[in-house]
Amino acid sequence: MENSSHIKLLAELNELRIQLEESNDTIEAIRSGEIDALVVKDKEGHQIFTLKSADHTYRIFIEQMTEGAVTLNQSNTILYSNSQFAKMIDIPLEKVIGQPFEKFLPQQYQGSFKFLISKAWNENVKGELKLKSRNGLNPPVLLSLKTLELDEGSSMSIILTDLSSQKETQQLLRQKNLQLEDAQKIAQELNANLENTVKERTKELEITIVKKTRAEDDLRANQDRLTRILETMAEGVVIVDVSGNLTYANPMAQKIFFINNQESLSSIYGTDKWQNLKVSGEPLTHKDHPLALMLSTEKEVYDHEIAIQPINGERFYISVNAAPIRDQNGTLTGGVVTFMDVTNRRKISQQKDEFISVASHELKTPLTSLKASMQILTRLMQSNKTSDKIPEFVEKANKNLSKVLYLTEDLMNVSKIQHGQLPLNKTRFNLTKLISDCCSHVKADDSYNFIIEGEKGVEILADFQRIDQVVVNLVNNAIKYAPESKTIRLDISRQDGVAKVSVQDFGIGISPEKLPHLFDRYYRVDPSGIQFSGLGLGLYISAEIIERHGGKIGVDSVEGEGSTFWFTLPTE
Predict the structure, then answer these.
(1) At what angle do helices 464-481 and 538-548 cross, to 10 degrees?
(2) Sign of CA pseudo-dihedral 408, 414, 419, 421
(3) What are the PAS domain coordinates in residue numbering (predicted)?
(4) Is 362 exposed, middle or buried (0-12, 13-18, 19+ CB in 10 A)?
(5) What is the tally of structural domains in the chain?
(6) 214 in any annotated domain
(7) 297 is in which domain, residue-wise?
(8) Rounded to whole angstroms, how far apart are CA atoms 51 and 80?
């Protein structure tokens, strides 16, 4: 009996020795780092908690955090603490691990902590409380609780954020608010007698604010209007700084100079896209540019014309106006420059000058001849001699007088058209008969063959005299500009309530570049005015007459084959 008990004791002793060796091996492995674990002493004795590899990485990470961090088991014993938490409670790190977390909480916060951690086992929880530190600071902290899985089961991870600075700031803010309240009370007491004055001043201020707001609204509205005006202006407008750099360019300026708001203003002085020229065609230097003149002299520049020669385009002309912009002290800060395309204006002016020259010549020639005829007739009458040449001189005088009257009538018609005073006396008449009659009294001799084709009974509602004038102009035009064409064909057609008349010659034709300008005022097919007589007003007047009747007028021409002038009129 004693022998069996002895054997049993030896067996138990051997088992304990084996367990001790395993424990020693485990502790040695923990110390050497082969196993990452925690050894914790609690009411049940020493316990070892091994960490998963992910938890080990997590522990390394939170050791570097500025917040405090602890890991608790389900008995709220601290399994792990980072250095920052130990600093918060002013206790060495080795004396923290293995202690109950409540040990580092003031008594009045322990109940709150138990409530938080009881919820945290089921969900992530946050809450504020204070720590109990050895130095008596008892810092306020924000606890963020989250469960963490260890090999031995669930544990609780707590991140502690020090709220001391925040609380101090809040306390300071409360103190400042209290001080502010005290100051407000004092101010109210001091300003009690000034209440009426304050109200009056407040009312004045409100009125001022309303006026200022209205002024600002008006200013914004004016700015919007100005922007819309600038963006829709037919003139180019740019604003530059004192160095000549572009700060604004409206759409027309961008179009004229092939630039945009992001490009430098220096480009308008000439780029690889175009060249600035004087109106004479000579190169325009930088210093002679109107903008440069304005900036250098600080004086306005008005209607300074220059030419722009695009590399792959037709030369055009612009008129430049420039004015300096100054600040409140009168210092030059930049300038505003406007550009207007005056190419058409120059062409019209040139045509007008040519017209005046031609008109003077056209009027002078018949008047001179008329004067000579009258002088001869006067001498014959004074000599009381009869002569068989008197009828010849009378006829010549009548022809020259008719030519003067015809030219004068054209000038009067142009004046009436310009003033919108060309009257129309509409009646219903046979268009075919009108054309036939026109050909009869236009034809001076039998050298021209007029062929009238098309419908015979076309009637229209129009001004008979004005339509007759148009047909005469077109027929005379064919005779004048196509003298070698002995056949002139007139065609009358009607379709969908519109009558069409065409006058066709078989002369030299008209070059394509001249066709768009034939009905312009003062335009002459031969600008020199040497080859053909006339004022260059016939087609312009004809076009105005037809358009005032609600019709259209045009020309089709092929060089070397002849031209066809045509017009349409509504029949009703």
Answers:
(1) 150
(2) positive
(3) 222-266
(4) buried
(5) 5
(6) no
(7) 233-336
(8) 11
Are the C-beta atoms of residues 236 and 338 closer than 8 Å to each other? yes
Same domain, 443 and 552: yes
Tokens of 47: 């316990």
The one-letter amino acid code at 514 reads: K
Q: Kindly report the length of the chain.
A: 572
Q: Which residue(s) pair with 451 in the sheet?
A: 489
Does residue 491 contact residue 462 with C-beta atoms inside 8 Å?
A: no
- Of 137, 166, 195, which residue sits at a domain end? 166
**Statement to judge: residues 247 and 311 lie in one domain:** yes
Q: What is the pLDDT along the chain (572 residues), one digit of tens a residue?
A: 556 676 777 777 777 677 666 555 554 544 444 445 555 555 555 555 555 444 556 567 778 888 999 999 999 999 989 999 999 999 999 999 999 999 999 999 999 999 999 999 999 999 999 999 999 889 999 999 999 876 667 899 999 999 988 888 888 888 888 888 877 788 677 767 667 777 777 788 888 888 888 888 888 888 778 778 877 787 888 888 888 777 888 888 888 777 765 555 455 565 667 788 888 889 888 888 888 888 889 899 998 888 888 888 888 898 989 999 999 998 999 899 888 888 888 877 776 665 665 555 455 556 666 666 677 677 767 776 666 667 766 766 676 676 566 667 666 666 666 666 678 889 999 998 988 887 776 655 567 788 899 988 899 999 898 888 888 889 888 887 777 778 889 999 998 889 999 999 988 888 888 888 888 876 766 543 434 445 567 788 888 889 989 999 999 998 888 999 999 999 88
**E strand spans, 386-441:** 426-430
- β-pairing, 332-341 with 236-241? antiparallel
Reported pTM? 0.42
The answer to whether 167 and 142 have CB atoms below 8 angstroms apart is no
Domain end point (choices 295, 316, 336): 336
